[in-house]
């Protein structure tokens, strides 16, 4: 991949966001969410914006063309390095939940994401974690069980204190022609993600470019604040199954009870909307 200097323009939202980071460092921006939500496509959109349509297909992330998940491993997509040696690296991840997989398989994919966060903790000098982009499919007409479970997994990975690092953005704006429908959907989603927005997560309400969303995540620099999964795996040396998120797969009841709490919240929200 062409790694020529990124050198953002003066008005570029990247410029200010990048300046907060130490020089000569990779800024890692993981893109996470449910399987099929458009994580790989989102990263490809950034790569195309950055390098133009001439980008080679092997430089792009694999995009899912069937109902089954296709991103099964963590994969990195590097943007160019600035003259100060800062480089944004987007991280494509396996879906947190697919809905078609067995619970055991779902757990294995989340474990890969958890292990990646564990690795990042160990490479703090050369690479630092920026914000986390969490994607939601705007084209869905209803909130699914998997959306609630995926949100629980996000919360368990981050922990309450690190939810402020999350940028929630939506995909598939191009498939919805009706402006009013977009407004309604966004309003409902803002309520759905209210519990993390309250903790400082950003919910992107406008149709922003993928690159602008990455800049928002880069701006979420919180040095020296490990995620809950890093505290558990790196600092307490817990195995994945002993972590908060790992316990969802060890004891399915944990995910169910968490899910029930969100379900009650959603019911209350709907009751307040529709009486
Ligand atoms: N129309 C449209 N299709 C999208 C968008 N984002 C993703 N897709 C399609 O949705 C499918 C799943 O996308 P993918 O990036 O593989 O999802 P991932 O599992 O989250 O990585 C692919 O067929 C994509 O082309 C979008 O914003 N608009
Ligand atoms: Mg993918």
UniProtKB/TrEMBL annotation:
Entry keyword annotation includes Nucleotide-binding: yes
Q: GO molecular function: any one?
A: GTP binding
Which named protein is this?
AIG1-type G domain-containing protein
Task: Report the InterPro entries cross-referenced here.
Answer: G_AIG1 (IPR006703), P-loop_NTPase (IPR027417)
AIG1-type G domain spans which residues? 31-180
Listed A to Z, the keywords are: Nucleotide-binding
**Presence of the UniProt keyword Chloroplast in the record:** no
Q: Name one Pfam family in it.
A: AIG1
Annotated signal sequence range: none
């Amino acid at each position: 991949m062409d790694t020529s200097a990124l050198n953002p323009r003066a008005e570029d939202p990247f410029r200010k966001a990048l300046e907060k980071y130490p020089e000569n460092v990779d800024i890692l921006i993981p893109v996470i969410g449910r399987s099929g939500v458009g994580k790989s496509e989102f990263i490809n959109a950034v790569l195309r914006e950055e390098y133009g349509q001439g980008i080679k297909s092997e430089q792009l992330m694999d995009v899912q063309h069937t109902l089954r998940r296709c991103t099964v491993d963590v994969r990195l997509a590097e943007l160019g390095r600035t003259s100060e040696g800062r480089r944004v690296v987007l991280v494509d991840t396996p879906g947190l939940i697919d809905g078609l997989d067995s619970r055991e398989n779902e757990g294995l994919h989340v474990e890969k994401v958890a292990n990646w966060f564990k690795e990042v903790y160990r490479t703090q000098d050369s690479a630092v974690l920026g914000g986390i982009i969490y994607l939601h499919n705007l084209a869905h007409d209803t909130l699914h069980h998997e959306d609630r479970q995926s949100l629980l997994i996000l919360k368990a990975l981050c922990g309450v204190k690190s939810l402020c690092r999350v940028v929630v953005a939506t995909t598939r704006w191009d498939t919805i022609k009706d402006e009013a429908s977009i407004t309604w959907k966004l309003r409902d989603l803002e309520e759905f993600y209210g519990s993390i927005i309250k903790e400082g997560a950003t919910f992107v309400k406008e149709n922003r470019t993928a690159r602008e969303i990455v800049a928002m995540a880069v701006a979420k620099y919180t040095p020296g604040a490990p995620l809950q999964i890093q505290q558990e795996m790196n600092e307490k040396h817990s195995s994945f199954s002993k972590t908060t998120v790992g316990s969802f797969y060890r004891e399915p009841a944990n995910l169910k009870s968490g899910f029930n709490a969100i379900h009650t919240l959603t019911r209350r929200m709907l009751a307040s909307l529709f009486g």
